[in-house]
Amino acid sequence: MTEMTKSLETALTSDLFWESINILLSKPHVINKRLWGSKIWFRNTCKPKSTPFKLPATLHLLSDLVATDNVEQYKIQILNELDVDNILPNTSDNEDQVEVLLMELLPKNYSDKQGYQVACLWKDKSSITFYDVTPLNQEQKLCPDFSYTIQLNTNHILLTAISDENSKSFKWLSNTLLPQLIKWGTESESSTKSNMCNESLSLVSQTKYYEKYNDLKVKYGKEMVKIWPECTDASKFVYEDVAIAAYLLLLWEREEPRSSKSFVDLGCGNGLLVYILSQEGHTGVGIDVRKRNIWDMYPPGVVLQTQIDLRFLALKEYALLVTIGYIYKKNIHNTAIE
Ligand SMILES: C[S@@+](CC[C@H](N)C(=O)[O-])C[C@H]1O[C@@H](n2cnc3c(N)ncnc32)[C@H](O)[C@@H]1O
């Protein structure tokens, strides 16, 4: 292990550098293909307890996964180790302030485990240091397992790490991440801001979306991937439907908290979306021209049909189908609805 560095020329200003870093922190999956997202557990403005101050070379790994009831304890541990005190943001200028955050990295691949990184943002030095603090038993493969610093200096951006010369992670940091940071900053500057924030998520809070997605993934996804009887790629479909369900559930919750919605999924395919929405307390039906093997494995409350059987439709679902022209009211006779 030696100190490795990589430097790239850039005309980025400090503001643009931080814009880039914020993209990296809020949406690491845009560049790290092993991730589907991240969750920030805390982000605190801090002040060093003593001067001169130097960030430590490494941090202790967490002893367990981060959860709502132990995050406070981990925060105290991390801030103590960094030798900084929590302060109120904007109580003074940026000088000597360091922002500390704990980030959970969520893996795209089901068999991978999540990772945890602490990031220290040293605003007045245009520098950020990342530490891997993933509990040892997680064997994470999502981020470099060594600490590294990215700093903006006059006319160049510098990566420093204590790493192996042939480390793939170091190569990824120098050849992929570093140029991307410059690119994001340059794009912001030329105000062709490619909106990295998924437009389609803009109706719901991204943090809430990731939380909901993660909850649903744990609740339904893992089991589904195990029992998947179709010849299609289980994780692809499960991911997609869990993502759609997470989005819809938040949208509906926002419209009318705690009320049950009616829905119709036309061309429902495997029916997973109908299954999740039904289990989450909403009433609906899935319709598809072709029945799938997995349909028989869902519990009785999950209504999936190859033909519209109006007896299973609530008035609202029926109205929905009429509205979109899927069925014509004049053709309906002697149904449970009438
Ligand atoms: C692209 S797949 C989408 C499946 C599912 N909604 C999903 O997101 O995984 C389209 C589905 O529409 C179904 N489909 C096509 N034409 C249909 C029709 N006229 N009535 C009902 N289902 C139809 C197909 O069988 C297929 O399952």
List its salient traits.
338 residues, tRNA (uracil-O(2)-)-methyltransferase, 32% helix, SAM-dependent_MTases_sf, binds S-adenosylmethionine, 22% strand, cytoplasm, tRNA_uracil_MeTrfase, single chain, 2 domains
Could you provide a short overview of the structure?
This is tRNA (uracil-O(2)-)-methyltransferase. The chain has helices at residues 14-26, 71-82, 168-189, 206-227, 234-255, 272-279, 315-323, and strands spanning 2-9, 35-48, 84-86, 98-107, 115-122, 127-132, 148-153, 156-163, 262-266, 283-287, 303-305. The protein has 338 residues and is an alpha+beta fold.
How would you describe this protein?
The protein folds into 2 domains: 2-189, Alpha-D-Glucose-1,6-Bisphosphate, Chain A, domain 4; 200-331, no CATH class. 32% of the residues lie in helices and 22% in strands. The protein has helices at 14-26, 71-82, 168-189, 206-227, 234-255, 272-279, 315-323, and strands spanning 2-9, 35-48, 84-86, 98-107, 115-122, 127-132, 148-153, 156-163, 262-266, 283-287, 303-305. It has an 8-stranded antiparallel β-sheet, sandwiched between helices. A 3-stranded parallel β-sheet has the order 9-10-11, with helices on both faces. A hairpin with a 4-residue loop joins strand 5 and strand 6 (127-132). It is elongated, with a radius of gyration of 25 Å. Residues 330-338 have low confidence and may be disordered. Bound molecules: S-adenosylmethionine. InterPro entries: SAM-dependent_MTases_sf (IPR029063), tRNA_uracil_MeTrfase (IPR011671).
